[in-house]
């Protein structure tokens, strides 16, 4: 049966990009990495890595397995850290990163609850919509939205955020309500240029992919600007539900194409890899993870 160290070899192969780089990263031989990877694939009965002479690319199964196993190993490391620091005083300062729109509404209340439980901890929230370098910027942890790029950071999946299509009542009155995704070709759509594949909206129905190409006269590289454009009647938009729930409650926009699904957005808390986290950082990660289900 595979050991924890075997799983760490697999993670290194995915994140380093090839077997030789993984061997250097782990300070072991190329033969050891190759043997461990082959043994894992035999045990699991699936190809995890597509190998070429220069690259090691995860298969679809390998990518899914990497995401799950990295989260599991992060939890194990936290548990070990917790044991090592059992009874340690929770005090000191934390610098936590978050996004400009999401963090004030959804992360700050968790920080307030954490500070109430641990009155000797101070927290500085650093808001930034980019993926800040935690070590360079002196961050102890960060809450990040969306898929994580390959990273040597530790990560813990907190949950997923639902995404919807929506439009203003005025736009729908003037142009009609689409009943199926294919009808969007006849509509103006507000494009979020900062999103991956901004002009391909990946709807699903009963698990069946239904991607559609969309276009429109207005686009922006900012979520708030795109949502405001939809409110102003410039077209149909996509957004995480948390961003537009207040607009829906006020009657400024309405959900459209509700029977069709859209990709959800993962939320992670990430932190620098370390053999032993400070007690305050570990406590904050555990606290956020334990409270998150009630928040999303």
TrEMBL record:
Q: Which Pfam families match?
A: HTH_1 (PF00126), LysR_substrate (PF03466)
Give start-end of the signal peptide.
Answer: none
Species, as recorded: Dyella koreensis
The record's CDD domains line, in alphabetical order, gives: PBP2_CrgA_like
Question: What protein family is recorded?
Answer: Belongs to the LysR transcriptional regulatory family.
Q: Locate the HTH lysR-type domain: which residues?
A: 8-59
Please give the PANTHER family that the UniProt record associates with this protein: HTH-TYPE TRANSCRIPTIONAL ACTIVATOR TTDR-RELATED (PTHR30537:SF5), HTH-TYPE TRANSCRIPTIONAL REGULATOR (PTHR30537)
Q: Which domain of life is it from?
A: Bacteria
Listed name of the protein: LysR family transcriptional regulator
Keyword field: DNA-binding, Transcription, Transcription regulation
